[in-house]
Amino acid sequence: MKLPPIANWTNNIGAAGAFEIWERAMALEAQGKSIVHLELGEPDFDTPPHIIEAAHAAMLAGRTRYESAAGALGLRKAIAAYLKRTRDIDVPHTQVFVTHGVKGTLYAALATCLDPGDEVLIPDPGLPGNREISVILGVDPVAYPLKVENGFLPIIADLQALVTDKTKAIVLNYPSNPTGSLFPQDTLEALADFAKRNNLWVLADEIYYQLYFTEDAPPSIYNITGMPERTILMDGFSKSYAMTGWRLGFGIWPESLCAAAGHFIVNNVSGVAPFIQDAGQAALEGPQDCVDEFRTAFKERCNYVSGRLTEFGIKHHVPDAGMYIMLDLRHVENLSERTYDLLNEGVALLPGTSMGQQAAGLLRLAFVQEMRQLETALDKIGKVFG
Prior knowledge:
The protein is of the alpha/beta class. The chain folds into 2 domains: 8-46 and 289-385, Aspartate Aminotransferase, domain 1 (Alpha-Beta Complex); 49-285, Type I PLP-dependent aspartate aminotransferase-like (Major domain) (Aspartate Aminotransferase, domain 2, 3-Layer(aba) Sandwich), CATH 3.40.640. It is built from 12 helices and 13 strands. The protein has helices at 17-30, 49-60, 73-87, 101-113, 128-136, 156-162, 185-197, 258-268, 274-285, 289-312, 335-345, 371-385, and strands at 36-37, 96-99, 119-124, 140-145, 167-173, 201-205, 231-236, 249-252, 316-317, 324-328, 347-348, 350-351, 362-366. A 7-stranded mixed β-sheet has the order 2-8-7-6-5-3-4, with helices on both faces. A 4-stranded antiparallel β-sheet has the order 9-10-13-12. Strand 3, helix 5 and strand 4 (140-145) form a beta-alpha-beta unit. Helix 3 runs parallel beside helix 9 (274-285).
């Protein structure tokens, strides 16, 4: 029986590389193999009890029906207060839109800011979803290089060379996945000037914002004069509150885009479950000890991993934030085969090419397991690559 063809765009996207490695690792585990999972950005911490209890209480109270597509009023106000507390950003709750994770805001932002055939600048290496969501929408993703030799910071001249009359937006991610790099204030100032000079929308992904290892919290491009009018700030609950599976995020939208954002979200997903939003409100308004504990644990793990890699003579980029460290193995022949050798030894790392061509010859290690697991993993990494 002949069937109608599927959409052409499906031929141009793939699954996230991290999940491909994860599925291989899971297959080995099904055969009885013990695997240390360092390939996914999945913290080993449990969602704090008061957040779970808030969701449970909300369900028992009947918070299982439709909610405003923009988000529950309580959560939107809590998000506005959170931004004031963490970044000194003053924004009315009317410019806050709740979505299904940061990807939900990214999808809405690309859909409302660009037309099919327009171009968006995306970081390389960077989140694969930047490219794949663009392709789904008919937008052309143009990768800009983040070079290990430059600390994975963007170079304005490289960006400017990629701009055409079709370029309408740029995606920024800081602290960065996969590099863990923070963008210092002067870099953000230069990026802001670049965006204004080329009249671009800025999609600023700050999902790792609270997981910094520096003494002071990182700056945000949103605080630079002239940027709130052209910036969609994206953040969420997955990393700082160990809520990856809850799929809860939000965007701060320029006032000029709010109507379009609301129309897109209501027609795309209708909204996020109210009891999940109540859990998010409890996360922001409740005790913040978990954020401090997670940050401290990630910093300790980062220091341990970096120290062990140094012992083995393995070059790596020491991150300033997040939960990832990039191993520089460009000198290793047949790196792909060696990576699978490591997987067979019981350690799953992510090939850098899953995040972009600039990361060819690099591996991403997510220090998301407790210290004993990391000790086991590093012993095996030293055996294979040391």
